[in-house]
Amino acid sequence: MTIGRRTLIRIGARTLAAGTAALDLISVAIQTIVGSLWSYWRGKRPKGAIARQMYFVGNRSLLFVLVTLGFVGMVMVYQTCLLTTKIIDGRNQVGAQWARLLVLDVGPSLTAMMLATRVGAGIAAEVGSMKVTEQLDALRMSGVTPVRYLIVPRFLACIVMSVALSMFGMAASWGAGGLTGYYSFQINPRIFFDLSLVQPSHVAVGIMKAVAFGAAIPIVSGFCGLRAQGSSEGVGAAATAAVIGSSFAVLILDVLISFVAMVALGAGM
Amino acid sequence: MSSGFSLRRQIVSVGALTMAAARDAGGIAVLAFDVARSLLPPTLDGRELVRNLYKMGYRSVPIVVMTALFVGALMVIQFAAFVKQYGATGMIGWGTGYAVLREVGPLLIGLMFSGRVGANNAAELGTMTVTDQIDGLLALAIDPVRYLIVPRVLAMMITLVVMTMIGDAVAILGVMLASSAILDVHPLTVWYGFVDNLGVGDFLHGLAKALTFGAAIALSSCYYGLTVRGGAVGVGRAVNSAVVSAAVSICFLDFLMTYLTA
Question: B246 near B130, Cβ under 8 Å?
Answer without folding.
Answer: no
